[in-house]
Amino acid sequence: MLLLFGLVLMAINRLAGLVLPASTKFLVDNVIGKRQVRVLAPLALAIIAATAIQGVTSFTLTQLLSKAAQRMIAQLRKQVQAHIGRLSITFHDMNKTGNLVSRIMTDVEGLRNLMGTGLVELVGSLMTASFALVVLLRISVFMTTVASAILLGFAFALNKAIGTIRPIFRARSKLNAEVSGRLTESLGGVRVVKGYHAEGREEQVFAGGVHRLLENVLKTLTATSLMSLSSTVLFGLVSALILYLGTMRIIAGTMTLGTFLTYVAFLAMLVAPVSQIVSIGTQLTEGMAGLERTTDILAEKPEDQDPKRTVSIGKIEGDVAFEDVDFTYAEGKPVLHKVSFRARPGTVTALVGPSGAGKSTIIGLIAAFYTPTSGRVLVDGVDLSTVRLSSYRTQLGVVLQETFLFDGTIRENVIFSRPEASEEEMKAACGIARVDEFAESFPQGYDTVVGERGVKLSGGQRQRISIGRAILADPRILILDEATSSLDSESEALIQQGLSYLMQGRTTFVIAHRLSTIRRADQILVIEAGRVIERGTHESLYAAGGRYFELYTKQHGLQANLFLAPGEGDTPGDSFRDLAALNESDSEGDAADKEPNIARAARILRGQT
Questions:
Q1: CATH number of the domain enclosing 224
Q2: Could you tell me the pTM of the whole model?
Q3: I need a labelling partner for 231 at 20 to 30 A (CA). Which of 214, 435, 503, 506 fits?
Q4: Which residues pair with 449 in a beta bridge?
């Protein structure tokens, strides 16, 4: 409806624009040639009225279509952002953040050119050309046929030229995304850059990207300049030809001067679309290139639209099982080999092993970030690859080693996992994670802004907020990937004491390089080269003297441990279980200090009084 209304306004606008050139014949032949002065006033009034109509319709069109274009850009940005957010982790692993930001913010700008004033002018010129062609044919079929043949030949060549330029614009969009992405990374990692005095190297990398972008722009400028040159020469040729033919007809007495001037005016309207294509063709081509990239990304299927994911899982118990799971990130480079284990509800499973062994991949499969290449991951007996992720991930809590905070307040970052949580629940989670210890010391309290990626806080403070976020989610499955690696020993012991309450009745998976923190796990899986090479409790694995024994003794010192039986020498707070037991067996005085705060916070989160 909007487009139809726009076309009607455009038709009125262009018809009004024909009044001025059409009046030329009457002005020259009648008013000036035949001295019919009485015609002058009505002619002037008609021109004024037509001009007013043109002005009003042009203003309305600009407001109508330009604002519609801006609304569509905003809508498309929201659509693309929502779509990208629902794509798989694999997609995000393969695409740089800066590239995706460019897709959302820059590529959709093509709508501005496709629906803005440029397209309006082009469509309007084509409409005017259609009207003008009818008038020109009525004045002289021969002269119009000659001029039209030349213009059609040029239009064909111009179409070929624009087809050649389009891939250059697609390359420009890609280059622009790469340069913007690298700049985003450089600014985000400014501390690393300055720490290694690498400002000069970053300047060179950015300058190289800008140079490639410049070369691309120069190519398009050369092409458009040649198109403009060709159009100028063409118009000169057509003008000279029409001037010759028209003058000969005036001399022969078959055409009046007024008719010839009118013909020239309408001929200018006929050739205007060609000029418009040259001037805004690059804008339209660039806009089309951006929208093609946008269409490409919208064609990617969101991870929850997998036709196999049809099961909406209810409240889970947390029984997780791997059955002969293989996984490969890239073809020919397997990461996991026939991994099988079971984690029963309410138990703690620890994953240990060297870096690159596959521990984080196992965690990624449990979180449904990835789907096994072969084999199955089961949750409560249901194949996770068939489960709708929206019903599963709401019951999942994840604390990663690389803590990520949003540029907002402490409160906003904690309640990110459960926005509907009450103030009491938020503070209870912060109490368990020991966020309150530093948050309440700030002048703004929980409304303190943490900065981009939490830059205004220490590593330990950021990790505590991340843990608080997971605690507030009240998950059925809890994943801790080196969750306390940035904390000092005292803070770690205190937070693990809080987590011991949270972990009761929940299935927990822990990745830990500090093996002392997982000695009381229900089962420990030793992962190496993508395989589970040992499994058991700390005591059984230590006694077996295998790979776990090697890792443990290297970390704690062989000589010290030779004289200790497994479990001896443990210090309070070394593990989740130790802390829970410590809390139960502590003296009444110590329990009075610790129990009311932590246990009460845990009861608040569970909805207990």
A1: 1.20.1560.10
A2: 0.63
A3: 214
A4: 409
